[in-house]
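Lecture 7 notes: from sequence to structure.

We start with a single chain of 150 residues. Read the sequence below before looking at the structure.
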Amino acid sequence: MSKAKNSLGASIFIETSTAGTFVKVGELLDIPGMLGDKTGRIDVTNMDSEDYKEYISDGLKDATEFTLECNCIPNDPGQMRVFELGSSNANTKIKLELNDQITPTTGNKTTVIRDGYIPGIPNIVPAKGSQTKFSFSFQPSGAPDVTMAS
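Now the structure, written as tokens:
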């Protein structure tokens, strides 16, 4: 039987003005992925190459920007903090917390913390016949800090 966990209950947190302290960003709708960093490549294809291009690693991983979407909640402290950070371009941290603890009442959840910044003012998107949405991008910088569930 599969040991997969339902992702319902996953949460995103943004660092407050107090380093290492986080506030939840309310009513998250989707998480596109915070990992998936890729190493750059250098094309070394030459006149002696046969049939295929040749590449070597440049040795540096690139953390790609990702976008998160939530229901827009005007007085949500997390969403208000995201607006503040998007306006100031200040460096911050973002934390993903999954609802996957192995022992529900005593276990720890998987967490991913990324350094980076919010590269612009978040979007508020009203839609005909739908809820108003709040979306923002995050550009990670450096390696992720991943702690697996227990």
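The chain has a mean pLDDT of 89. Keep this in mind for problem set 3.
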